[in-house]
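Let us work through a complete example step by step.
Step 1: write down the sequence.
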Amino acid sequence: MPALRRAGVGSRIAYYRSVMRPKLTQQQLADAATVSLGTIRKIERGERGLSDSTLEAIAQALGVDPACLVADRGSAHTRVREALPALSAALATYDVPVDGPVRPLHVLRHAVAEAIRWRLAAQYTRIARNLPDLLTELSRAYHTTTGAERSELASLLVRAYRSADAVAYKFGAHDLSARLIELMRWADSEVGDPLLSASVAYVRTEVFFVAHSHTAGLRVLEQALDAAPAPTAAPEIAATGALHMRAAVIAGRARDASAAVAHLRAASTLADQVPEGVYCGTAFGPDSVKTHEVSVAVSLGDEHVGLALDVADEWKPPKGLPAERRSGFYIEVARAQLWSGLVDDAFESLKVARHIAPQHTREHPWVREDAATLRRLKRADSETLTNFAEWCAAI
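Step 2: predict the structure and record it as tokens.
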């Protein structure tokens, strides 16, 4: 792709470099991004453009989403949507992939692990651009391999489909998301790993959220809990605990307070037995359960909202928690604050969510709803709030 000149991108890079702790020199940034010092200098002075790959390398070195560095914030949004047809095409040929090269299995493992990291960091632009080719290659490898490697390739497909689904679901392509989930279930059936099956059941809940069929979704999750392996070791404990977290939220959406509290309590008990971490692609541990306390309280609404505010007053998600989950916490807290009349606090929470994971925050429907409401309530403070509302397409 040709280098693009983006107004303001150089100054944004210089800004983020200067606020790093510890502050990065231009040389250190160049080394971390694997580009020349001269390139960094010219970019920061606005004397040269940069390609998407260079933008992403610099963003990764700075520890920010590429969208944070682009003055035209709509470009990242557009690139994701433009990539969705290619993703659909990759799914259409899952059983008859086009001929082409296949990299060694260890390279494919690394590529899928990278896609998982992008998902947890809410780096949807990278997923959208890279996953169509990766999914096609994995399908090609799966259909031309036999034996134990074939089962592992099916497992890699499940994980790659999940990363692709994060983009489809977050960007409102719900039919595409449902198709990805069905393919996850198909590939999972070829593996026979109960831990992988538990993660697929966790993701499948999206279909029920979209359909507002919360009672049915709760029933499916409870069936998955019955089929889950006994929680004796850390991976099994985390798989069961994650299902309980998910069940607590969907029970809250169903306004089944007793089930929500019971599942949240079960998740908390299990979380006390393992360190916070990512297990089979899902974050689980004491901090993850704490974020779900807020989710459940907001889902239940009414008199439960105060609990979300109490949690937010006493606790903040640590930086080690995946960006998508941390930003989700502040989005949920913002809704609780807005419902409680704390409009200034709500706006601050939305800005924190945006700083943590811009693409996740921008595409979240609650952010658009709440930004539009805040703008109506705070017309006197219009400029900053209007800019935010325009950014997330609330107006």
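Step 3: interpret the result. Residues 148-170 form the longest helix (23 residues).
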